[in-house]
Protein backbone atom coordinates (compact mmCIF):
# COMPACT_ATOMS: atom_id res chain seq x y z
CA UNK A 1 0.00 0.00 0.00
CA UNK A 2 0.88 3.66 0.14
CA UNK A 3 2.16 5.48 3.22
CA UNK A 4 2.33 9.23 3.73
CA UNK A 5 4.46 11.49 5.88
CA UNK A 6 2.96 14.97 5.96
CA UNK A 7 4.59 17.84 7.79
CA UNK A 8 4.74 21.60 8.07
CA UNK A 9 1.34 22.52 9.38
CA UNK A 10 0.80 24.75 12.38
CA UNK A 11 -0.33 28.12 13.61
CA UNK A 12 0.68 31.27 11.75
CA UNK A 13 -0.39 34.88 11.83
CA UNK A 14 -2.20 36.48 8.89
CA UNK A 15 0.28 37.50 6.24
CA UNK A 16 2.72 34.81 7.30
CA UNK A 17 4.06 31.78 5.46
CA UNK A 18 4.13 28.04 5.90
CA UNK A 19 5.61 25.22 3.87
CA UNK A 20 3.87 21.85 3.73
CA UNK A 21 5.69 18.68 2.72
CA UNK A 22 4.40 15.25 1.81
CA UNK A 23 6.45 12.15 1.17
CA UNK A 24 4.73 9.08 -0.26
CA UNK A 25 6.20 5.61 -0.02
CA UNK A 26 5.26 2.01 -0.61
CA UNK A 27 5.00 -0.13 -3.68
CA UNK A 28 4.55 2.86 -5.98
CA UNK A 29 5.30 2.39 -9.65
CA UNK A 30 4.22 5.79 -10.94
CA UNK A 31 2.14 8.80 -9.91
CA UNK A 32 0.31 10.89 -12.50
CA UNK A 33 -0.42 13.90 -10.32
CA UNK A 34 0.36 14.91 -6.75
CA UNK A 35 -1.32 17.67 -4.89
CA UNK A 36 -3.04 19.21 -1.94
CA UNK A 37 -6.67 19.66 -1.07
CA UNK A 38 -8.09 21.26 2.05
CA UNK A 39 -11.21 21.07 4.14
CA UNK A 40 -12.40 23.69 6.58
CA UNK A 41 -14.99 22.92 9.28
CA UNK A 42 -18.45 22.72 7.79
CA UNK A 43 -17.19 22.99 4.23
CA UNK A 44 -16.51 20.60 1.39
CA UNK A 45 -13.00 19.51 0.54
CA UNK A 46 -11.57 21.78 -2.16
CA UNK A 47 -8.63 21.83 -4.52
CA UNK A 48 -5.58 23.79 -3.41
CA UNK A 49 -3.02 22.77 -6.02
CA UNK A 50 -1.87 19.84 -8.12
CA UNK A 51 1.23 19.09 -10.18
CA UNK A 52 1.67 16.40 -12.82
CA UNK A 53 4.74 14.30 -13.44
CA UNK A 54 5.79 16.64 -16.26
CA UNK A 55 5.44 19.72 -14.04
CA UNK A 56 2.08 21.09 -15.14
CA UNK A 57 0.34 22.85 -12.27
CA UNK A 58 -3.22 23.72 -11.37
CA UNK A 59 -4.28 26.01 -8.52
CA UNK A 60 -7.55 26.76 -6.83
CA UNK A 61 -8.75 30.29 -7.54
CA UNK A 62 -8.48 31.36 -3.92
CA UNK A 63 -4.75 30.57 -3.67
CA UNK A 64 -3.46 31.67 -7.08
CA UNK A 65 -0.52 34.02 -6.75
CA UNK A 66 0.02 33.14 -3.08
CA UNK A 67 0.76 29.39 -3.05
CA UNK A 68 3.33 27.46 -5.04
CA UNK A 69 3.54 23.69 -5.52
CA UNK A 70 6.63 21.68 -6.37
CA UNK A 71 7.41 18.01 -6.79
CA UNK A 72 10.37 15.64 -6.72
CA UNK A 73 9.47 12.70 -8.93
CA UNK A 74 12.44 10.59 -7.84
CA UNK A 75 11.51 10.87 -4.15
CA UNK A 76 7.71 10.94 -4.55
CA UNK A 77 7.52 14.14 -2.57
CA UNK A 78 5.40 17.23 -3.02
CA UNK A 79 5.68 20.56 -1.25
CA UNK A 80 3.35 23.51 -0.95
CA UNK A 81 4.76 26.93 -0.21
CA UNK A 82 2.03 29.10 1.23
CA UNK A 83 2.60 32.86 1.43
CA UNK A 84 0.39 35.79 2.42
CA UNK A 85 -1.78 33.47 4.45
CA UNK A 86 -5.29 34.56 5.35
CA UNK A 87 -7.66 33.39 8.11
CA UNK A 88 -9.80 31.77 5.41
CA UNK A 89 -6.88 29.48 4.57
CA UNK A 90 -7.46 27.75 7.90
CA UNK A 91 -8.22 24.09 7.21
CA UNK A 92 -6.91 20.57 7.30
CA UNK A 93 -4.64 20.11 4.30
CA UNK A 94 -4.55 16.69 2.66
CA UNK A 95 -1.81 15.32 0.45
CA UNK A 96 -3.24 13.50 -2.57
CA UNK A 97 -1.85 11.11 -5.15
CA UNK A 98 -3.91 10.89 -8.32
CA UNK A 99 -4.04 8.06 -10.83
CA UNK A 100 -1.29 6.13 -9.07
CA UNK A 101 0.00 2.73 -10.10
CA UNK A 102 0.92 0.45 -7.21
CA UNK A 103 2.45 -3.02 -7.42
CA UNK A 104 -0.19 -5.65 -6.88
CA UNK A 105 -3.10 -3.36 -7.73
CA UNK A 106 -4.98 -3.44 -11.02
CA UNK A 107 -5.29 -0.08 -12.71
CA UNK A 108 -4.64 3.30 -11.13
CA UNK A 109 -6.11 4.72 -7.95
CA UNK A 110 -6.18 7.88 -5.89
CA UNK A 111 -4.66 7.94 -2.41
CA UNK A 112 -5.04 10.41 0.43
CA UNK A 113 -2.85 11.31 3.36
CA UNK A 114 -4.24 11.80 6.87
CA UNK A 115 -3.99 15.58 6.75
CA UNK A 116 -2.17 18.34 8.57
CA UNK A 117 -3.81 21.28 10.31
CA UNK A 118 -3.09 24.83 9.18
CA UNK A 119 -4.46 27.62 11.35
CA UNK A 120 -4.13 31.28 10.39
CA UNK A 121 -4.99 33.52 13.29
CA UNK A 122 -3.70 36.50 15.20
Please tell me about this protein's structure.
With 122 residues, the protein is mostly beta strands. It is built from no helices and 11 strands. Strands 2, 4, 5, 6, 9, 10 and 11 form a 7-stranded mixed beta sheet that branches. Strand 7 and strand 8 (77-82) form a beta hairpin. The termini are far apart.
In brief:
The chain has 122 residues and is mostly beta strands.
Helices and strands in order:
Layout (H helix, E strand, L loop, with lengths): L1 E6 L2 E3 L5 E9 L1 E12 L6 E7 L4 E3 L7 E6 L4 E6 L8 E12 L6 E4 L3 E5 L2
Parallel strand pairs: 2-11
Antiparallel strand pairs: 1-3, 3-8, 4-5, 4-9, 5-6, 7-8, 9-10, 9-11
Can you tell me the residue ranges where pLDDT is under 50 for at least 5 consecutive residues?
A: none
Helix content: under 10%
Give the averaged pLDDT, no decimals. 97
Q: Helix and strand string, N-terminal first?
A: EEEEEEEEEEE
What can be said about the biggest beta sheet?
7 strands, mixed
Number of helices: 0
Number of strands: 11
* Radius of gyration, taken over Cα atoms and rounded to an integer in Å: 14 Å
Structural class: mainly beta
Beta content comes to over 45%
The rough form would be described as elongated
Please give the alpha-carbon distance between the first and last residues.
40 Å
What key phrases describe this protein's structure?
122 residues; mainly beta; 7-stranded mixed beta sheet; 4-stranded antiparallel beta sheet; 60% strand; elongated
